[in-house]
């Protein structure tokens, strides 16, 4: 068998900016917040100077140029070094932000080229790859009619030393605001791996990032909560001032997920952190701002899942209002536990009853009174939702994290493998999924990337090779910066990432010069993002037995499995 030796890739082989110089690093070390950091507290493997050299780059913007756009996913924070930028506090029309539909012709051309240039061996990699140079979708796009935008919309001014974009980078979520340059400005982009390392060694920076959420993001989150939509500005301000934050579970929950998969249902329930417990006094109205919670009723030694709550859902409103009408203390009707991790905003009961409860319509109160006559009716699944045993299965296996899960109906599937062949044809001769997986009734949840709401595979990646596409949210792997460390594959709770041996165009296997072992790369489903027809697996199935489906709400699965 032919073999070719190459050096094993390392984390900083592909710096964010190959043009970053020692002189620029020296200047950065002299400006806040880096000037206040003690290089001695940083680990030997990730010294402060090397973080700045490899995980940052200096970017320049012209007045009106968009830096980040609301709704785009981000993997970097940005620090203002010089000049000023403005963050919009209200959503802007797509045309103002330079959003245009993708051209299908370009996708079709790429698909045809891919078929014509099919390699002779699987997993071929060129000997040399270009340096990693991600760009923000807004880069080079200017706000249309900037004076009118400034006149008609509320904005916040950010100047030198101020950080933004950090929440999207840290929480693997979309930007909540558009930021554009007001003047010619110079920004420092810090990819999230570098920000993570800076925060780990600098508690003051970690506290500052938490304070930024309250200052810059809390307002938008609360204003987008329907429960608070009817508040006047004074009441809104009092609610905002009163809230507290709480987190339950682990930010890196992949290890607990693997333990849960091997344990019995009662043990899984015992390991889930309790957020609120049935029968206990209601101590807050909770607004879920991230993660997933299991809402369940006590049943013998265990619990029966009633629903699962994700971002934007609330809990405690009904209990507080109905108890206040009856003149009784409010108690939780159900138990809420964190599935992996759950982040919540808490409104104190007194503030809620004084400021928010009076805005709840009488028609809504009437429905609650009627439903409260039946013990299980308050949190009954909506019509068309999945049955309780299916909810238990989805929550227990953490499948509710998937936005593009591959589900196969085995009663329809003929095992023709057209889905696998179609996937292999579009991905270097190797399919990016395995037609195996968890079974529930006639449904198989295949080992294919689910493009999760909370992709824990991204947490430990040392280079940022596994990342979200900033416009679509699809989780992708940049092959140029993947070092083959297997961290993402080991972190994925769903076994959806495979490590593969790579080859030269001649077919020779590439081996590590130092150890003689084959060099690996991480591979996974990319949802056929470059194909005009979408996922090839689903498109190729002749029996409609395979679907890519959003499991963050159970209604889609229930509807598809019954059609």
CATH fold node name of the largest domain: Jelly Rolls
Let me know the number of strands.
Answer: 24
Helix content: 25-40%
What is the CATH homology-level superfamily of the largest domain? Jelly Rolls
Principal-axes shape call: globular
- Given helix and strand content, the structural type is alpha+beta
What top-tier CATH class of the largest domain fits best? Mainly Beta
Q: Measured on Cα atoms, how large is the radius of gyration? A: 25 Å
Strand content: 15-25%
State the distance separating the first and last CA atoms. 50 Å
**Main β-sheet: number of strands, strand sense, barrel status?**
6 strands, antiparallel
Give average pLDDT, whole number. 85
Spans of at least 5 consecutive residues with low confidence:
128-138
Q: How many structural domains in the coordinates? A: 3
**CATH architecture descriptor name of the largest domain:** Sandwich
Number of helices: 18
């Amino acid at each position: 068998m032919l073999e070719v030796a190459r050096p094993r890739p390392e984390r900083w082989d592909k710096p964010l900016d190959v043009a970053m110089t020692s002189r620029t690093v020296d200047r950065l070390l002299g400006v806040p917040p880096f000037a206040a950091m003690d290089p001695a507290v940083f680990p030997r493997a990730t010294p402060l100077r090397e973080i700045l050299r490899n995980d940052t780059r200096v970017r320049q913007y012209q007045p009106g140029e968009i830096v980040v756009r609301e709704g785009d996913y981000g993997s970097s924070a940005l620090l203002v070094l010089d000049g000023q930028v403005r963050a919009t506090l209200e959503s802007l029309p797509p045309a103002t932000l330079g959003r245009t539909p993708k051209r299908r012709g370009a996708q079709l051309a790429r698909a045809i080229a891919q078929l014509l240039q099919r390699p002779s061996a699987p997993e071929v990699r060129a000997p040399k790859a270009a340096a990693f140079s991600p760009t923000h979708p807004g880069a080079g796009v200017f706000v249309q009619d900037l004076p009118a935008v400034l006149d008609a919309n509320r904005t916040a001014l950010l100047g030198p030393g101020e950080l933004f974009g950090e929440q999207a980078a840290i929480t693997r979520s979309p930007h909540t605001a558009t930021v554009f340059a007001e003047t010619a400005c110079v920004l420092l982009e810090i990819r999230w791996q570098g920000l993570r390392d800076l925060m780990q060694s600098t508690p003051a920076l970690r506290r500052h990032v938490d304070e930024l959420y309250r200052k810059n993001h809390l307002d938008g989150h609360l204003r987008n909560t329907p429960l608070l939509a009817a508040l006047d500005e004074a009441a809104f301000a009092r609610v905002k001032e009163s809230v507290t934050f709480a987190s339950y579970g682990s930010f890196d929950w992949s290890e607990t997920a693997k333990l849960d998969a091997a344990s019995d249902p009662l043990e899984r329930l015992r390991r889930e952190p309790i957020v609120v417990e049935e029968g206990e006094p209601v101590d807050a109205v909770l607004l879920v701002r991230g993660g997933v919670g299991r809402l369940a009723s006590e049943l013998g030694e265990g619990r029966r899942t009633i629903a699962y709550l994700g971002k934007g859902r609330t809990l405690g409103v009904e209990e507080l209002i109905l108890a206040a009408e009856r003149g009784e203390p409010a108690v939780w009707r159900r138990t809420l536990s964190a599935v992996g991790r759950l982040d919540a905003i808490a409104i104190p009961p007194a503030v809620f009853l004084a400021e928010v409860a009076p805005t709840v319509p009488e028609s809504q109160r009437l429905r609650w009174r009627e439903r409260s006559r039946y013990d299980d009716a308050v949190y009954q699944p909506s019509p068309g939702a999945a049955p309780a045993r299916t909810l238990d299965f989805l929550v227990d296996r953490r499948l509710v994290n998937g936005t593009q899960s591959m589900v196969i109906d085995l009663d329809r599937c003929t095992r023709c493998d057209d889905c696998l062949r179609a996937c292999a044809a579009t991905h270097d001769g190797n399919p990016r999924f395995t037609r195996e997986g968890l079974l529930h009734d006639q449904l198989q949840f295949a080992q294919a990337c689910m493009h999760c709401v909370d992709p824990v595979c991204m947490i430990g990646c040392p280079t940022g090779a596994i990342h979200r596409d900033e416009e679509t949210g699809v989780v992708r792997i940049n092959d140029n910066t993947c070092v083959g460390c297997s961290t993402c594959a080991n972190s994925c709770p769903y076994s959806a990432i495979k490590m593969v041996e790579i080859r030269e165009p001649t077919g020779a296997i590439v081996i590590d010069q130092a150890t003689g072992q084959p060099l690996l790369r991480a591979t996974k489903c990319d949802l056929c993002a470059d194909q005009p027809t979408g996922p090839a697996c689903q498109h190729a199935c002749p029996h409609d037995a395979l679907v890519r489906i959003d499991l963050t709400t159970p209604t889609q699965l229930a509807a598809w499995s019954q059609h």
